[in-house]
Amino acid sequence: MIEPPPSQPRQRFQTFDDLGHRKGPERIEALRSALREVGIDGFVVPRADEHQSEYVPADAERLAWLTGFTGSAGTAVILTESAALVVDGRYTLQAPEQVDTGILTIVPLAETTAEAWIGANLKRDQVLGYDPWLHTPDGLARLERAAAKAGGTLRPVPNLVDAVWAGRPKPPAGPVDRHPDVLAGERVADKLARVRGNLAEAGCDALVISDPHNLAWAFNLRGADIGHTPLALGYAILPREGVARLFLVSPKVDPALRAALDPAAEILPRSELEDGLASLSGARVRLDAATGAVALRERIEAAGGVVDVGKDPITGMKAVKNAAEIAGARAAHRRDGASVVRFLAWLDTAAASGGLTEIAAVEALEDFRAAGGDLRDVSFPTISGSGPNGAIVHYRVTRATDRAVRPGELFLIDSGAQYPDGTTDITRTVAVGEPGAAMRDRFTRVLKGHIAIARAVFPKGTTGAQIDAFARAPLWQAGLDFDHGTGHGVGAFLSVHEGPQRIAKTGTVALEPGMILSNEPGYYAAGAYGIRIENLILVEGRLIDDGERPMLGFETLTLAPYDRRLIQVDLLDPGERAWIDAYHARVREALSPDLDPVARDWLTRATAPLAG
Q1: Where is the Peptidase M24 domain (predicted)?
Q2: Which residues, in sequence order, are bridge partners of residue 221?
């Protein structure tokens, strides 16, 4: 039997505290009291910080503090007599469990948007407040149209949640370090030259970098201001000519980073951003449509600058990984795969006893990864869902919800890691004991969709939306579907959720060689079990004999077996069976040299050819 490695004397990367869960009416009533004091009738509370980040620092967790909802996306609209929380399909089960539905109406995004709810519920002549640091110009325009439809108006105000949040955490101040050129694959000077070339083509004099991910990529730096993503919060002003200026929240800047950036860029405190924006008088300034706050536009225009709202060119450059980043991703996935296999081998025995809990599984997996070497963090809080908890797409186990992994159920574990050379994200669903016929049918349909994406060949210029249906077709044939995208972009020792590429109905960006995405279809039986199968995939060129157009396909980066006990072989066609056997052979060949004999024997059994 495999024993988990002993816990190292270190602080874990994730906790199991109940950060939200059914806040009473007091906090919303306090906010309503603040509304009355400033003479407005409502306030919009997005789940966002001033960079529109998915993962935010503790002092920006306003939505969770106010409502109890801890999901990574959502918007609350608090009016004097009504209130709503709008969430997407990932959170329609989670939100009612965390939020007092007697105070807040849960509104599925599939049914209506926050703006539509405002248009239907704001009354004539009422005033709706918003924080201009938490909305983009496009987002503000949508709010303005919604308020106008209701006969109301918008008003910018200082954030009213902050005004009533007693004990609000202080801003983060993690260390900011240099990301080595050998891992980045490109020098800062060369990156900035490419960006400046794009600015010249667009007729812009400067770029305000408002996305911390783009800041990290462009200047080859990494930070520790938020959990699970190595970001330094702040901004940069990059002129078409001259020295770039970085305005960082944290004062803990490695002197080696300052030296490496000199003379291309200087690092200043975040408090000097206002002066930096004021210096843009007369300049045409590109502001990122996705992350540039309304407040930035207002300050540039007040200084006499002209704001050009559009795409930050860094976003697209960052998405296409270079040779060094691709090599790093492959190395990170091999290291991660060996740790995951050790965990799965241990899980087989530990779960069979009936004494394993969701939290114990999370802790064991983190320990296996830490023992594997070079672990810097988990890339997001591990989703560890047994039985019905597996049907909650973004379930986060807490000590209050911790559940045993029981025989006769399915166990879903979605996890990832941050290594200096790459970011990983993998989901496996395993059977505990003997799975039922419906479980095997659903699992196999999800697997068929997963394989369809992995095997896809498509012409250059194809978007994620055009191949999303490949993953859903086997489920559609049985009248089934799932309510999340099939795949998201992934960074290089950066965010586990990276744009602009994605495989989804909304994935309108063409896939390019070098992009890394997830491949993760699923199926969720509410109150019973969840199934998701996820690998990371790399877009690469494909040579087709006698082909007439440039074609693309995917290399699967993730290395770990699928649970053969859940595969209904007679639902697979010969090509699908051959793909699984070939993938399992590749996993076995790649990982066996890095495993101890017990784990190696388990992997040999887990990757045996399918019967039939």
Answers
A1: 329-540
A2: 178
Query: pLDDT tens-digit profile of 291-315?
Result: 999 999 999 999 999 999 999 999 9
Taking residue 571's Cβ as centre, other Cβ atoms within 10 Å add up to 15
| Full set of structural domains in the chain with CATH | 26-164 (3.40.350.10), 177-319 (3.40.350.10), 323-600 (3.90.230.10)
What pTM was estimated for this model as a whole?
A: 0.94
CA distance 580 to 447: 10
Position 282: which residue type?
G
Element (DSSP H or E) covering residue 328: helix 323-352
pLDDT tens digits along 103-158: 999 988 888 899 999 999 999 999 999 999 999 999 999 999 999 999 999 999 99
Return the SS3 of 499.
strand
Is the dihedral angle over the CA atoms 279, 282, 286, 292 positive or is it negative? positive
Mean pLDDT of 418-441: 97
* pLDDT score recorded for residue 9: 59
Residue 222, CA distances (Å) to 58, 216, 219, 229 in order: 19, 6, 9, 9
Amino acid at 300: I
Distance CA 151, CA 558 (A): 53
Strand 265-269, strand 284-288: pairing: unpaired
Question: Which H or E element spans position 248?
Answer: strand 244-248
CA 226 to chain centre: 13
Task: Report yes or no: 426 and 333 within 8 Å, Cβ to Cβ.
Answer: no
Distance CA 429, CA 383 (A): 11
